[in-house]
Specification:
The chain is of the alpha+beta class. It has one domain: Roll (CBS-domain). Helices cover 34% and strands 20% of the residues. It has six helices and five strands; from the N terminus they run βαββααααββα. A three-stranded mixed sheet has the order 1-2-3. It has a two-stranded antiparallel ribbon with strand order 4-5. A hairpin with a 2-residue loop joins β4 and β5. The chain starts with 17 loop residues before the first strand and ends with a helix.
């Protein structure tokens, strides 16, 4: 493993994102449809927050049922994306080393980092991306 390998080699580039005008029903649908756990919230191409599936779980019963009916509609209508998302984000650039990303994720209490170049969201890297990368090295 090279210590200087950039995160751009393992990050997800085709990022699924939300806007502040989206609702939490849409967020839940995207989490489940794409089997993901983190969705950046953007204004145009700039990131303004991050919504995680665990953020939804804190306010709902989203994972308690596989029922296709929207059992959380009332709860979701009480909150906006902006009220639930994490706002003070730590981000990295696409040339940040994988080692640096691993150090940040090991020290912090989150499991995903937005990758931002010149104020534009270009990707997202998760702990799962790091684990997959490490498994390829063995």
């Amino acid at each position: 493993m090279r210590k200087t390998t950039p995160v751009s080699e393992i990050m997800t580039k085709n990022v699924i994102a939300l806007t502040r005008s989206d609702n939490l029903d849409r967020a839940e649908m995207l989490f489940k449809r794409h089997n993901i756990r983190h969705i950046p919230v953007v204004t145009q191409e700039s990131i303004i927050g991050m919504l995680s599936y665990s953020d939804l779980l804190r306010i709902s019963f989203a994972d308690a049922t596989n029922d296709e009916r929207n059992v959380d509609a009332v709860v979701y209508n009480m909150f906006t994306i902006e009220q639930v998302m994490t706002k003070n984000l730590v981000s990295v650039t696409s040339d940040t080393s994988i080692k640096e990303v691993a150090e940040i994720l090991a020290q912090k209490e989150f499991h995903a980092l937005p990758v931002v170049d010149d104020s534009i969201l270009v990707g997202i890297v998760t702990t799962t991306d790091l684990i997959k990368y490490l498994l390829k090295q063995i």
